Task: structure prediction
Amino acid sequence: MSIEKIETKYDENQIQVLEGLDAVRKRPGMYIGSTSSAGLHHLVYEIVDNSIDEALAGFCDEIRVEINPDNSVTVTDNGRGIPVGIHPQQGIPTVEVVLTILHAGGKFGGGGYKVSGGLHGVGSSVVNALSERLEVEVSDGEHIHYQSYERGKPTCKLKVIGDTKKTGTKITFLPDPEIFEVLEFDYEVLLKRLREQAFLNQGVKIIFIDHRSEDTTENVLYAEGGIREFVTFLNKNKDPMHEDIIYFSAARKDMEVEVAMQYTDAYSETILSFANNIHTIDGGMHETGFKSGLTRVINEYGRKYNLLKEKDENLSGEDTREGLTAVISVKVSEAQFEGQTKTKLGNSEARALVEGALGDKLSAFLEENPKIAKTIVEKTISASRAREAARRARDASRKDSRAGMSATLGKLARCIDEGAEYTEIYIVEGDSAGGTAKQGRNRHFQAILPLWGKMLNVEKSRIDKVYGNDKLLPVIQALGTGIGDEFDIEKLKYGKIIIMADADVDGSHIRTLLLTFFFRYMRPLVENGNIYLAQPPLFKVFKGKNKNLVEKFAYSDMERDQLIAEMGPGCKVQRYKGLGEMDVNELWDTTMNPETRTILRVTLEDAIAADQIFTVLMGDKVEPRREFIEQNAKYVVNLDI
Result:
């Protein structure tokens, strides 16, 4: 690589200092992650989190969140209200300091908050900087104070606009179209987050209203039972193995923990951890303490009451968490999060507190509820036996693979550059389409694995059944990562895993079965963005013959009709009923050529919602599945019946 010298003077004049909130507008992604839909919704979270902090401090019990007709958002709370007095250092009203200066707030040891999720103190000022306009009203028990801003700069001085006996803060902001790629708030995305906050903050009422249509949508979110109700909500489509939610709490110095848990007859686990109301999706010390404490307590109980025999090995952590739904919430005065995204808690004392709480409180619960305890331990023993059966099946499959005798991988067409990040593996439905794909692929970077028939529904099966399934074992062996607790993404042989199935009911079912498998047993592939869905065309519209032949492809009924109109009289339409109907060139041009194809990346925006959808669609309960289909049928496109 050659380096071209830039022939310009480099001195003090080239050093740019961004004053005030200019840095936020210049690099918004540093503060809210992105300027896409996720960043847009993050603005609401920042303001709501400030109100939640007031609730944590004991001064707020009602928060009102409204999406207005112009797509602005208003957040109102009945907390103490942002201080309006003149700031001793800045010489301007404190509310203006909070809204215009980064890292200004009551969360840096000034005694305003004991516990806070707003660790960095940038929330309100960042929202102000990224809003076309923002208005704040503060009620201090005597007067209502008002100030407005445009793109972070005050448009008037703080003024009194009325009298009141109430206290609280009301902020209305309109996201700036100069900053955001998306300006439309998604009600369901915000509802999920606000519902979560209601569960985590027992006794706080959150009223969520959408004024954007004639029929105003309103949800009142209030969880008198706190995280107990959260577990009930998460298990609404599952079959619990014991009716009572196991709940306990503990505290020491400047930290407290709550745990709620319930076992179901499912084979997957759902563990959600939070620190100061922030969802720590990457876990951390509190989650580590929970897992190690749970494993120790269940093993000790099983040994004590002879449910685990002397010859039995100790239950593994994976065994003790099978079918478990748990919510762990810690409140820490000096939270140590890893990075601005705050997805992992680093406080080592949180591990000791949570692990000790399980040792004391969960042990006591099991002693006092022997029937539930026996049910739980027996389930974990059953999981252990299945894990051992899976180990034997895994070892057998590895032996076959090493010996070069594995019939399951006989249909895999490897690529020359296997192991490189740019390589792809197409998992193709059917031998016919697989054969066409093998002929049409680029052998350097595209591998083909044909699958035939419908595979195992892993939502209803344990891991030992997965290793024994002749439809899924080729996938496991081809990718090379292992599954479950053995999964190692560093061993992945292909950068893209592309599911290519027919655009019909059977193809949709196969895609769903594969996605369920990846989500349950290879979830990092989904989180890392390695899974894709191929988009084969539904129609070929053509006209003329030989040298005058013109062919175009359509991926929807609307595209087909547009092509027919463009090409005029005499054109013909071929409806592809399956991938196998395409010739080699057609499949390459439309579905496999990186320069002309369309593939959809599978992302994981919300693990809770994904878990519930897979449970509904692939689980045993019929009624929730029927309700889901009825509610979502209107959104289905390109469905052949």
About this structure: The mean pLDDT is 85. The domain at 227-386 is CATH 3.30.230.10 (Ribosomal Protein S5; domain 2).
